[in-house]
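Researcher: I'd like a structural prediction for the single chain below. Treat it as a standalone chain; there are no partners to consider.
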Amino acid sequence: MAMLEVENLDAWYGASHVVHHLSFSVEPGEIVALVGRNGAGKTSTLRAVMGLMPKATGSVRFEGKSLLPLGAHERFRLGLGYVPEERRIVSGLTVRENLQLGLVAAGRTDERAAIDEIAKSFPRLKERLGQQGTTMSGGEQQMLAIARAIISRPKMVLLDEPSEGIMPVLVEEMGVLFRRLRDQGTTLLLVEQNVEWALKLASRAIIIDQGELVHASSAAALLADKDIQDRYCAV
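Model: Treating it as a single chain, here is the predicted structure.
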C-alpha cells in the first residue's frame, strides 16, 4: 500500500480552480520531488493534502485512510507533518517554545527527551533554545520550522520550498538531514524550486504545470532530461 494516494484531486481558492484532476502516490520511505514553475500549483497541492485549501474534491488517502473529511489537526495526529513555505515561526516565542508547539499538537509529553533528541539533528538550534525564534537568520528559522514539524515523529513530512533564501552551506546540511530522515523511515514529499538539488535527493519526480500532472519519472531520469526541465521548470 502506498503511504499517500492522491486521485483526481481538484482544489480551489474561491472561484480559482488551481489543481486539476491530479493523481499520484508516495511509497513509504521515499523522497518524492514535486517540481514545476512558480504558480504551477505545487503549494496548493501540499495545502490540499494537509487540509488547508478552502475547497478540495477527489480522493486523498494516507495509509488507506481518507483525509478529505478531516481537519488539518486531525491529519497531523495521523502522522502527517507540514513545513510551509513561509515557515510561520511564532513571534515572541523562544526556539524551545516553538518546538513545544509541535509537541503539544502531537500530544507528546516527554518534552526534555524530545528536545534532546531533536538537538542531535539540529545542533545550531540547541545553542539557541532560549533565543526568540524570529531573531535568528532565515536559514536557522527554516531549520526550526523543520524541527518543529518532525519533533512529533511524523510518518511523512510535506516540505514547501525548504531551500528558498538559504545559504548554500545550510542547503547542503538540509540535504544531509533529509537523507537521514529517509534512512530512519520518514517519508518526504518535497516541493522545491532548486530542481537539481531536489532531484539529487529524491527517488522519483513529479512535474505539475497549471495545476496538472505533466510528467512523472525517476528523479535520475528527469535530472538527465534537460529538455523536459527547460519545458516545465525553467523560469
